[in-house]
Amino acid sequence: MTTSVNAVSSLDATGGWTTRDGRAGRFGVVFAAVWLVFLVDSLREAWRIAWSDQNRVAGFVGLLAIVAFAVTYLAIFGWVRARRRRAEGRVPPAQGWLAIGALGALMLVMVLAIGQEGMAAVVYVVVVGVLVLPTWWALSLTVALAALVEVTGRTLPGWTEQAGLTFAVCTAAFAMWGVSQLMMRNLDLLRAREENARLAVADERNRFARDLHDILGHSLTVITLKAELANRLIDVDPERARTEIADLERLSRDALADVRRTVEGYRDLTLPGELARAREALRAADIEADLPNSTDDVPSELRELFAWTVREGVTNVIRHSRATRCSIRLAPDRVEVTDDGTGPPPDAERGHGLDGLHERAASLGAVLVTRTLDPGFALRVSVP
User: Fold this and answer.
1) How far apart are CA 278 and CA 259, in angstroms?
2) Do 367 and 381 contact (CB within 8 A), yes or no?
3) Per-residue pLDDT tens for 75-102?
4) Does domain 286-384 sit in CATH 3.30.565.10?
5) Concatenated DSSP letters for 335-358?
6) Considering Cα of 57, then 58, then 59, then 65, what sign does the dihedral take?
7) How far apart are CA 310 and CA 307, in angstroms?
8) 360 contact partners, CB below 8 Å, separation of at least 6
9) CA 63 centroid distance within chain
10) 162-197 per-position pLDDT tens digit
C-alpha cells in the first residue's frame, strides 16, 4: 500500500498541472482523479460491510463518506487550480483550514464506519494541506497526522501497525511540497514575464511620445512662425506672403510625412537635412544663422544623434531664447548649439525634448551638457 498511496503526491507538475508558460494545464483535475484509485481498498471494505450481516448501516455510511471525500478532494483541487489560473497566489489560511477540516471530517466518518481501512484518506488530507497551507503549518499538519497514524495503529483494539502508511504520509507531503514550490516559482515567473511585457509597452509608448514631440514640436514651431510672418506680409508684400504660404504647405506636408515615419517605427533623420531645416527656420524667425557647410567629419554612427541635437537645440532657440544669433558647431565627437538670447529661467525644469535627447545620447555613450552663457545659452552633446 505504501507505493500505491504515495503516488497520490505525483500531481504532474509539468504536464497535467501546468503548461510550459506556467499556467494551469487542461487535464489537471483528471490527473488528480487518477490517484483516487488508491481509495479502492477502502471502497471494497465499505462494500463488504454493507452487504454482510456485520453492520449494513455502517457500510452504506462508509460508501457515502468515501464518495463525498473523493468529490470534495477533487473540488478543492479544482478550486486551487482555478485560483492559480487567475494568478491569485496562495490560498488564504482560513480557507485552507476550512478545506482541510471538511476532508478531515469525512475521513473521520470513514474510519468510524469501516475501521482502519478508512485511514487511507489521511494521505489525501496531507497532500491538500501542503497545497493550501503555508509551509510551517503544512509541516505541523504532516507531523500530527503521521503521529496519529502511528498511535492509532499501535493502541486501538484490532488495528495493526501502519509503518507503510506513515511513510506514505511523509513522502507524499515532501513530494507535494516540491510540486507546490515549483508551482509558485512558475507563478512568479509568469508575473515577472507579464510585468516585463507591461514595461516594454510603457517604454515603447514613451519612445513614441518622445519622437512625436521632437518631430512635431520643431515642425509646428516653424509653421507657426511662417503663418505669423505671412499674416503680417499679406497687405505689405503680397508676393512674399504668397511665398511664405507656399512654404507653409510644404512644411505641413513634411511634418505629416515625419509623423507617418514615426508611426511606422522609422527614424529617417539626416544631419544635412536638419541643418538645412535649421537655416530656414532661423531665417523665418529673423535670427542670424551661423551654420557649418559640411558634415563630412561626423562619423556615421553619430549622425542621427547630432541631427536630433540640432533639431532640439534650434527649436529651443526659436521658442524660448529671444536670440538674434544662433551658431552650430560640428566636430567628429561633438555638436554644440549656442545663442545670444536670454536662456531659460534659473528655476525652469528641463522639458520632454531635452529628456528625450538625453536618453538618445546615453544610449550611444554620449553626454548632454547645457550651460548658461553671458549672454545666451549653449547645448552640447559630446562623446567622451
Assistant:
1) 19
2) yes
3) 888 888 777 777 676 788 888 899 999 9
4) yes
5) EEEEESS--S-TTPPP-HHHHHHH
6) positive
7) 5
8) 305, 308
9) 49
10) 888 888 888 888 877 777 777 677 777 777 888 888
